């Protein structure tokens, strides 16, 4: 099974509870009659200029803003347990690899326990982690509400918890109690993906947005994307396709075929809350004899797993992604634990957003910013 499919399926299993709690309608799409024919007069000069500047900054391979250059020296003799949503999720696996690499620089021990993508598996993995009595536990890629008893027990036993994509926002969390949560800002990711559409289209686009409205985080991201697109009058939203992540493989091809029939010329760009939609859109676009490097031009607003980079680098129905710096985030988790062990507050660092395209990826299948390894080693005294 392709990595991107396993990732989406693993995430979807864990988010069924969110769908039940929110009561969102599964799979409803919006969009009225086809928009008027695109014209050269459409546009938004001010929004376009701002979007182009933001995109130029985000496409830099040297972000210009690195990880914190000061902090406590490494506390010796610590151990971490990384509780993974599922190690078949490329994002989770990438962070785990970065964590292991960083732990070698501090001399710490790391153990990874795979939750195997199910609530029962994650709860069992978390319980096993606590039984090991580590110095700290990483909540990697799942909602801590799914493991409330384990979170409460770890807190009672004074085991620091750090999340990766565990809650919606970066930084400390009181409920659930996390020393910090490592992730990019969803507002930044949403804004830059919409800005890329505005800039790439020169302010004249017919856009389809792919989301999963059963997940509050994903629905918020797509709402933010639409809000940013609305700053440009020439970026018209043709439709919003509500396809649950668990249904992308079965639903996306037929929805894409329907969109091609409704908007044969108007549909120029797409934004999705996860790259997996474009893996599943590709067969329908190919069947319609669309060229991989032609319209609709697609950008994923999040993740940036290896399969997304492969599609981008080969010009196959995805033009860009807003990837997480997975290895860097693994190093950041170690640095945050070191601050917790030293009695210091979290760093407050949030990685800047990046846009990966075939022009700046260097043929690689991950986003790995320069300089952070050397900076952290210096901070830790290595």
Total count of helical runs of at least 4 residues: 13
Structural Rg: 21 Å
Give the fraction of residues assigned to helices.
Answer: 40-55%
- Output the strand order for the largest sheet: 2-1-3-4-6-5
The total strand number stands at 11
Order of helices and strands: HHHEHEHEHEEEHEHEHEHEHEHH
| Helical/strand content category | alpha/beta
Coarse morphology: globular
User: CATH homologous superfamily of the largest domain - what is it?
Assistant: Response regulator
In what range is the share of β-strand residues?
A: 5-15%
Domain unit count: 2
For the report, how would you describe the main beta sheet?
6 strands, mixed
CATH topology of the largest domain: Rossmann fold
Instruction: Catalogue the unreliable spans.
Output: 1-26, 32-41
Give the end-to-end Cα distance, rounded to a whole number of Å. 40 Å
Reading off the top of the CATH hierarchy, the class of the largest domain is best stated as Alpha Beta
Mean pLDDT across residues? 90
Q: Per CATH, which architecture of the largest domain?
A: 3-Layer(aba) Sandwich
Give an overview of the whole structure.
The chain has 382 residues and is of the alpha/beta class. It folds into two domains: 3-60 and 187-321, Response regulator (Rossmann fold, 3-Layer(aba) Sandwich), CATH 3.40.50; 79-184 and 327-351, 3-Layer(aba) Sandwich (Rossmann fold), CATH 3.40.50.2300. It has 13 helices and eleven strands. The protein has helices at residues 3-14, 16-22, 45-58, 90-106, 119-131, 148-156, 186-200, 216-229, 248-262, 276-287, 306-313, 326-341, 372-380; strands at residues 79-84, 109-114, 136-140, 161-164, 171-173, 178-182, 205-211, 235-242, 269-272, 297-300, 320-321. The strands form two sheets. The protein has a six-stranded mixed sheet with strand order 2-1-3-4-6-5, with helices on both faces. A five-stranded parallel sheet has the order 8-7-9-10-11, sandwiched between helices. Mean pLDDT is 90; it is low at 1-26 and 32-41. It comes from Streptomyces triculaminicus.
């Amino acid at each position: 099974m392709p990595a991107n499919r396993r990732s989406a399926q693993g995430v979807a299993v864990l988010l069924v509870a969110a769908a039940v709690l929110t009561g969102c309608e599964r799979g409803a799409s919006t969009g009225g009659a086809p928009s008027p024919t695109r014209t050269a007069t459409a546009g938004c000069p001010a929004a376009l200029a701002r979007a182009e500047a933001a995109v130029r900054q985000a496409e830099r391979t040297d972000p210009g803003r690195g990880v914190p250059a000061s902090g406590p020296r490494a506390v010796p003799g610590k151990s971490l347990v990384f509780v993974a949503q599922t190690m078949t999720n490329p994002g989770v696996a990438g962070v785990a690899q970065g964590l292991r690499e960083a732990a070698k620089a501090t001399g710490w021990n790391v153990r990874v326990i795979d939750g195997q993508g199910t609530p029962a598996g994650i709860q069992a993995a978390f319980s096993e982690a606590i039984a090991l009595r580590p110095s700290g536990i990483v909540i990697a890629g799942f909602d801590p509400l799914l493991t409330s008893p384990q979170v409460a027990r770890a807190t009672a036993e004074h085991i620091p918890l750090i999340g990766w994509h565990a809650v919606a926002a970066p930084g400390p969390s009181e409920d659930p109690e996390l020393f910090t949560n490592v992730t990019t800002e969803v507002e930044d990711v949403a804004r830059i993906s919409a800005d890329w559409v505005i800039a790439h289209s020169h302010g004249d686009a017919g856009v389809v947005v792919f989301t999963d409205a059963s997940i509050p985080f994903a629905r918020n991201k797509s709402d933010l994307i639409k809000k940013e697109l609305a700053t440009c009058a020439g970026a018209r939203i043709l439709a919003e396709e509500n396809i649950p992540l668990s249904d992308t493989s079965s639903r996306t091809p037929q929805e894409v075929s329907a969109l091609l029939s409704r908007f044969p010329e108007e549909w120029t760009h797409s934004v999705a809350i996860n790259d997996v939609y474009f893996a599943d859109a590709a067969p329908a676009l190919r069947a319609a004899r669309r060229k991989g490097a032609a319209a609709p031009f697609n950008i994923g607003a999040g993740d940036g797993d290896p399969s997304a980079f492969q599609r981008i680098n080969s010009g196959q129905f995805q033009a860009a992604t807003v990837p997480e710096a997975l290895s860097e985030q693994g190093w950041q988790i170690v640095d945050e634990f070191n601050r917790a062990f030293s009695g210091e507050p979290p760093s407050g660092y949030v990685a800047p957003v990046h846009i990966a395209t075939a022009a700046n990826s260097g043929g690689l299948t991950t986003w790995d910013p320069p300089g952070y390894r050397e900076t952290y080693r210096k901070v830790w005294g290595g």
